[in-house]
What does this fold into?
Amino acid sequence: MKKIYIAGYDVFKKDSIQIGQYYCELCDKYGFEGLYPLDNVVNFEQSKNKIAQDIYKANVELINKSDIVIANLNAFRGKEADSGTIWECGYAKALGKDVYGYMNDNQSYLDTFKNDERQLVDGTYVDMNDMAIEDFDYSINLMIACSVKEMVFGSFEDCLKELLK
It folds into this structure.
């Protein structure tokens, strides 16, 4: 049975444990074993730095054990995906694992900036800090968009269904 590491900012939600259980149940339904970061056992009665190191090491080990990574790449605390999730995708890709991403919709990254948040300067869109806005018709940064095996516009379950095609 192939193992799927479930990456994403869902671990920060109030009902994160229940979300992880649900995702693991979906994995089982489709013939996979789900590996959810919050399934790790970490001692929280130690220094914050030690806790962080333990979480990091445990998540790396789960990615190492996995065959596939499915990542929630929806925007988190802004216009970009969670930076920890992006690191996990890059690490898995470097190990030669298949990485699948999912997002709610396929709006281009440029279009996530409202008209009053961007302006066209010499043929290039820039944000309010005069920084160029990536415009390649992807919903996410090109380095992620070009490295995932498949970007699914829908839910975690939709992504699982894509694996079976």
